[in-house]
Amino acid sequence: MTALSHPLTYQVNLTSPKTLSAYCDDGGYQGARIALTQFSPEQAVEQVKASGLKGRGGAGFPTGMKWSFVPRKATKTENENTYLVCNADEMEPGTFKDRLLLEGVPHQLIEAMVIAAYAIGANKGYIFLRGEYHLAAQRITHALNEAKTANWLGDNIQGTGFNFELHLHTSAGRYICGEETALINALEGKRANPRAKPPFPQVAGLFGQPTIVNNVETLCNLPHIFRHGIEWYQSHAPESDAGTKIYGACGRVAKPGLWELPMGAPIGKVLNDCAGGMQSGLKLKGLLPGGASTDFLLPQHLDVPMDYDHVAKAGSRLGTGGLIVLDDKQCPVAMVLNLLRFFAQESCGWCTPCRDGTPWAVQLLEKIEQGKGQLADIDELYRLCDFMWIGKTHCALAPGAVEPLRSALNYFNDDFVQHIELHHCPYHHGERHG
């Protein structure tokens, strides 16, 4: 990860993350101390609102506004709680930014959750962690123990009168748990199906109580906002959304990895300057700009700033900011088939369009990739994209699944047609033309 004087870094060390003492020596927990001693909870929410921080999990909803929806009570009964949940169930293909933060600087997340809990009035919190992140679980557990010993968690934190319990919950592992209401169901020990909204979790979430669910990277901005102030935070990207973003790149690029850059860094900067461009002998054919559930963009889009508005205007979504790169020697049909297989497997099966539509799309793509397709299959894929689109499904899984398919049909239609006309994949036989 590029070492910049921006949020989130704190000299991330994936080999040996800093102890609490070393983290504090580097400025750690100063943001939490400032938040708890210089701001009321309501003022802390307004501070985050004013910062312009948006959710880094994919949706890009303003964080402070989300917090403001939590109802406040002067006093709570014994059975009343407000919960803070960190969504660390990072299962979006092509995305591994949260893993970096969880393994490399776990105390930063704990500090961030102390700040967020104080702001929303939460007395209990959970880190909902992807089950496969074993190393992250070990390091978070160690950091939690250190924080409890140092009174950054528990009762009367640092003598401020604020109480906050924080627990690690290791997920059984389903992609759908990344959806906040499915995550809440899983945390309650139920099947991980998304809930109907309203009511929204901010009003009735975990165990029917007010709940805020935020992504790892979103939360990790908080210590820096409170430690350095709003103007400093916004100065990193004055022409774009506030703050910085961890961008990634995978695929056949020269140097796959993660880099922290000012929000709105152009796609080409991430791909060429950070990832070193394409591997020798390969050319860029297209890319998914924000993980597997976003629309393809093309080489002509390399100047597009990677923020929410500009990527949307280009026809895709910023999503998680992780580039999945398609080169000119890879088959786009096979790539989309691989993604649809994943989404079909991970569907919770709650609604018909997702439960039946994603496997049907897989079958059609398999026919085409194997050279057994017909031109009518392309028309059927277009119909499936409409069948599974926004507003026609219980949650956003199916619309996200068809985004790469829909855009591939539009941008790489000739590839689909050649599969059908040649009766095999032209990339596997070296016959790709056009």
Automatic annotation (TrEMBL):
Known EC number: 7.1.1.-
Residues covered by the NADH-ubiquinone oxidoreductase 51kDa subunit iron-sulphur binding domain: 333-378
Broad enzyme group: translocase
Reactions performed catalytically: a quinone + NADH + 5 H(+)(in) = a quinol + NAD(+) + 4 H(+)(out)
SUPFAM superfamilies: Nqo1 FMN-binding domain-like, Nqo1 middle domain-like, Nqo1C-terminal domain-like
Any Pfam family the entry gives: Complex1_51K
Record family assignment: Belongs to the complex I 51 kDa subunit family.
Protein name: NADH-quinone oxidoreductase subunit F
The organism of origin for this protein: Thalassotalea marina
